[in-house]
């Protein structure tokens, strides 16, 4: 598995359980990449939706992916603090320099005061039926939702004080 070098511009692709493309982030700077973890930074990057819509991210963000956890975390740096958007997803993989994962609908929005809201439970129920998620996936996602919430409450991993700010400072060294 070829892992791009730090400083490389990578594409991030998310898919749905049935294999259809869900969303593409056109350009993210890889800050740290191994077979086990990827940390990227982007700012005002183009995003392509499967329905043909495109949009541009509004603020700088640090993205965290791990090969052993069924979630990824995006820390968005805003005027009033760091907001996190967490996707319940398959662990990431590298495919010809593209970071890929399966999006499993459930999301968690975390506010600067570390309170959080679970989002898209209705979408998860709908897609679980439509795409026939196996019971094992449901169990894995429930277990990983608990892990994610524990990380938020304990300020662990990408929620640790300074994590997003420190990686953002490093991201700035790659901007011209």
Automatic annotation (TrEMBL):
Q: Which Gene3D superfamilies match?
A: FomD-like
Q: Which keywords describe this protein according to UniProt?
A: Hydrolase, Magnesium, Metal-binding
Output the superkingdom of the source species.
Answer: Bacteria
Family matches, as Pfam families: DUF402
Q: Which residues are involved in binding Mg(2+) 1?
A: 87, 103, 107
EC number(s): the record gives 3.6.1.15, 3.6.1.6
What's its top-level EC category? hydrolase
Report the function annotation for this chain: Has nucleoside phosphatase activity towards nucleoside triphosphates and nucleoside diphosphates.
Q: What is this protein called?
A: Nucleoside triphosphate/diphosphate phosphatase
Organism, per UniProt?
Bacillus solimangrovi
């Amino acid at each position: 598995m070829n892992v791009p070098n730090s400083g490389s511009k990578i594409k991030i692709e998310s898919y749905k359980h049935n294999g259809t493309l869900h969303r593409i982030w056109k350009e993210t700077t890889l800050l740290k990449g191994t077979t086990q973890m990827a940390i990227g930074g982007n700012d005002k990057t183009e995003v392509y939706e499967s329905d043909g819509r495109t949009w541009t991210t509004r603020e700088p963000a640090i993205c965290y992916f791990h090969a052993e956890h069924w979630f990824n975390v995006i820390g968005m740096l805003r005027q009033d603090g760091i907001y996190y958007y967490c996707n319940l997803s398959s662990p990431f993989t590298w495919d010809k320099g593209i970071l890929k994962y399966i999006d499993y609908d459930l999301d968690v929005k975390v506010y600067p005061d570390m309170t959080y809201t679970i989002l898209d439970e209705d979408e998860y129920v709908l897609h679980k039926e439509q795409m026939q998620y196996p019971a094992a996936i449901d169990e894995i996602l429930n277990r990983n939702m608990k892990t994610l919430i524990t990380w938020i409450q304990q300020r662990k991993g990408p929620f640790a004080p300074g994590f997003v700010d420190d990686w953002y400072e490093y991201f700035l060294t790659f901007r011209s």
